[in-house]
Amino acid sequence: MAMSTRLQRLIPPAVMIAALAAILGATDLVAGDYLQRIVIIIGINVILVASLNLSNGFTGVFSLGHVGFMAIGAYAASILTLPVHLKAVNLPDLPGWLQGVAMPFLPATLIAGLIAMLVAFAVGLSLMRLNGAYISVATLGFLVIVQVVLVNWDQFTRGARTFAGVPAYATIWNVWIWAALTVYVVWRIGASAFGRDMRAARDNEIAALSLGVSVIRSRLLAFCMSAFLTGVAGSLWAHFITSFSPKSFFFTQAFSIITMLVIGGLGSVSGSVIGVFLITVLSELLRNAERGFDIGALHLPPIYGASQILMAVLFVLVIVFKPAGLMGGREIDIRGILRRIGASRRGKGAA
Amino acid sequence: MDREEGCLLEIDDLSKTFKGLHAVENYHLRLSPGEILGIIGPNGAGKSTVFNLLTGHLRPTRGSIRFRGQDITRLPPDRIAALGIGRTFQNIRLFASMTVLENVVSARQLKERSGIIATLLSWPSFHRTEQRLASEATENLGLFGLADRAGKAATSLPYGDQRRLEIVRALALGPTLLLLDEPTAGMNNQESMFVLDLIRRIRDQYKLTIILVEHNMPLVMQLCERIQVLNYGQIIAEGTPEQVRADPKVVESYLGRAMEDSKDAEARNG
Ligand SMILES: Nc1ncnc2c1ncn2[C@@H]1O[C@H](COP(=O)(O)OP(=O)(O)OP(=O)(O)O)[C@@H](O)[C@H]1O
Ligand SMILES: [Mg+2]
């Protein structure tokens, strides 16, 4: 009995992993370059949005500055993996002990995540004491500070100039392993004592305190874990795009992640994944349309920036008509769906 | 003041001033284990403020609070809760995004949880803990006749059930001292009597000490061995229900009106 429930518990994740692996494998083998790139971008966005959900969705502490952690992850990992001969050219002022280092992808990514997490801890220790709206403003301030540091810390970042030559280590596989891991971690935390603490503090801070929940500590836990995963996403993105500058991590990027999160639904992990798919695919389609196209005899001129305008409109529409997002804070019940499929198949077999 | 042996709660000289308004002044109390104390008084007398001071939601302007011999005067509310003081709120504060069961589990889990590693690895011990939490919380709900609604959204319950759920949640914390702020507010007579019976049962079953703030006089008089009467933040009378009922100051400031009110209410209900 105990064994069989344990096995039953493993069925839904096993089915999902198999399905994901099949889709990725097919993409890897069959799909063209363009489609592969989109699949990688979706994977990275899934990490960014799901981890933002851990902080913004579960604890209700609405961070606007998470892109700052992405930037920290991107720069930290890229400094570590940049080949030694490029370091000599691009980052000649790097301290000696870093000059000779060219790390593999995984340790560099883990270290990048840890650095983002440490920064989050230091920042969060004071920020998490503030009240809701103040935290949002303060995290925005954090993002601006990260910008200033990146632009001025020439020795490590090349300042406002492009940081180029990062090895293209990101693949469909390593990106999606991290994406699956992130979704799992966020979902698992959500459905645990830690997640209930976070939601309790969000729903009613005073009641949560009266039940012994340390509101600050549970917010800090969410913030730090979220920053780690966001830092990892930064590293993956850097090794996908291979050249970037501080501008890559500013309001446009922050807004795009928040749009996906809000459209999918705060507090719902499956909502995050749906939001990412919807917005990434839509904005990719729109980006192509921006260049102008012909419908029969009608010629549409290029409208640059149209995709961003449409994203903003979509964002406003969702906030007005479905403020809880598409998933409304609920999860897709995979177990229930599998059960129903099983039941209908048995039903057919009997008939 | 000297410390008394066997005292669960010792409060001395407790005062709270809001911008010149003396919400609570020189409040004092000695509470023995197992006692049910009633605090009554007109609106704005400072009853809820005493609770908020006691649970750390407000910082006292002056005074000291000792719980089981430990000074808790300036501890934050989560620490005080962990030491064993549970409470309900005058205006219901349930967790709106959670089910009835999750509301109770969120209190139980303070003392019974898997570590972060076991959680992240979905270790068997994690699942066992989750199952145990759920079954114990269901048991708690059963005592209050709420078990069949465990899966419902907490805020979808009727008003009276929400109040009862808040009591269950506070009990699930496993407190030594339970503070109930108007547990029968907004309930009809029948519901109130159900709660009365319940409070007696939980006192006996969980060996609890209870402080009860209530406007429902018949209920307070039946339930409490001792009553404090507050008016304008000060204790104006203290004693057994009989002593308090006979005190002219109490009758003048509060009881006269409250009795009239409850008679009116009875007349309306009956
Ligand atoms: N946070 C606060 N800030 C300012 N004034 C407050 C605050 N809390 C309570 N008061 C004031 O303190 C006084 C006592 O309020 P309290 O809520 O303790 O009364 P109460 O006895 O619980 O009344 P009721 O029977 O209406 O619940 C009131 O005058 C109230 O307005
Ligand atoms: Mg009150």
What integer is the average pLDDT of chain A?
88
Percent of residues in helices of chain B comes to 40-55%
Distance between the termini of chain B: 50 Å
Please tell me the overall pLDDT of chain B: 90
Proportion of β residues of chain A?
A: under 5%
| Residue runs with pLDDT of under 50 for 5 or more positions of chain B | none
Q: What is the tally of beta strands of chain A?
A: 2
Shape of chain B: globular
Order of helices and strands of chain A: HHHHHHHHHHHHHHEEHH
- Report the total helices of chain B: 10
Counting DSSP H or I runs of 4 or more residues, the number of helices of chain A is 16
Write a compact overview of the structure shown.
The complex is a heterodimer of chains A (about 350) and B (about 270). Chain A is mainly alpha-helical and about 350 residues long. In chain A, about 75% of the residues lie in helices and about 0% in strands.
Structural features:
heterodimer, A: 351 residues, mainly alpha, two-stranded antiparallel sheet, 2% strand, B: 270 residues, alpha/beta, six-stranded mixed β-sheet, four-stranded antiparallel β-sheet, 10 helices, 43% helix, binds adenosine-5'-triphosphate, binds magnesium ion
